[in-house]
Amino acid sequence: MDYAATGSQALARIAESGNLDALEALRIEFLGKQGSISGLLKTLGGMSADERQSEGPKIHALREDVSAALAAHKDALESAALEARLASESIDLSLPAPASPRGTIHPVSQVMDELAEIFADLGFAVATGPEIEDGWHNFTALNMPESHPARAMHDTFYFPDRNESGEEMLLRTHTSPVQIRTMLEQGAPLRIIAPGRVYRSDSDATHTPMFHQIEGLVIDKGIHLGHLKWTLETMLGAFFERDDIVLRLRPSYFPFTEPSVEVDTGYSFEGGRRVVGGSGDAPGHSWMELLGSGMVNRHVLAAGGLDPDEWQGFAFGVGVDRLAMLKYGMNDLRAFFDGDVRWLAHYGFSPLDVPTLSGGVGAGA
Ligand code: PHE
Q1: Tens digits of residue pLDDT in 174-208
Q2: Per-domain residue ranges of the chain
Q3: Closest CA to ligand 1's atom 10
Q4: Which of 50, 61, 87, 294 could bridge across to 260 with cysteines, CB 3.0–4.6 Å?
Q5: Interval 76-87: pLDDT, tens
Q6: Which residues are near ligand 1 (CB < 6 Å)?
Q7: Cα 328 to the center of its chain, rounded Å
Q8: CA of 232 to the centre of ligand 1 (A)
Q9: In whole angstroms, how far apart are CA 293 and each of 19, 102, 250?
Q10: Each residue of 57-75: pLDDT tens digit?
């Protein structure tokens, strides 16, 4: 038998087979149970010892060659298939990058996030309350009974109807009602900030009917004005990222604090822009009013369900829009609420620029 011819025929057919299925059919034809080369191996059993000696190695060699050729061609077909897949799935790295996200974070949201981060570091939690408030939380519990003149001075938006308890309903004029709600819900001690929208019927270049405040409230034992001053200095230093913030505390009046303190900060003009820092009495500097604060009035503690002989506290309220304008150099408050995408593209913040104390609370505009 001419094993060499059988071999070269088999190898030629293997080389020609163009896909894995055809190749598998050849493997079965040659080496399967009924395969032609398997058949040759079976003939060894019927041979004489001499014949087996001379034929055996040739048949085994034929079998080796054919199975090696099958394996090699299988590899080749598989890598050709892989190459074809890679070619069809390729990415053209020379294409321009996709457009970056278009939306931006509004400066008011950014400043609220910055302040929440700063106060979280000082151990303050974030509290909230409703924007549709009742007269008791917004005024009465804050030491402004119905007859109080401050109540009339607040430019309040009222709803036409009272609630089930006969309370007048209104859009909250400040975030201070959250003081009352939090004391009643959580008791003392307390360390909270309450950011949110507030409403007053007032509108010109520096006032919008809706604006934003952050309320701060600390209730504990032995709290005094020194704690308030340190907290405000620390907060404003971190917020403006300056170590030369100088505060001036002026006696003032709020019904819900006693004593009440108006807080001014020194600033100067640099390149036509207000820059916070230094004493307002220094050459080229002035003072500007920044926020209202004071020690929580005894009547307010009592309305919040706390014993004023046991607990003391301080509170402050600051305009967020004002802080944003100062820090990021914007001069028209009304533009904040126009929803003009060009303004937002210019003054907005990248959604990926989450303010952190380690990364800087003022991450690039
Ligand atoms: N609620 C006051 C305002 O809106 C600010 C304030 C808050 C003052 C807390 C003192 C204490 O003007």
Answers
A1: 999 999 999 999 999 999 999 999 999 987 777 89
A2: 3-86, 107-347
A3: 293
A4: 294
A5: 999 998 999 888
A6: 174, 176, 215, 254, 257, 292-294, 315-317
A7: 20
A8: 14
A9: 83, 39, 10
A10: 999 999 999 999 999 999 9
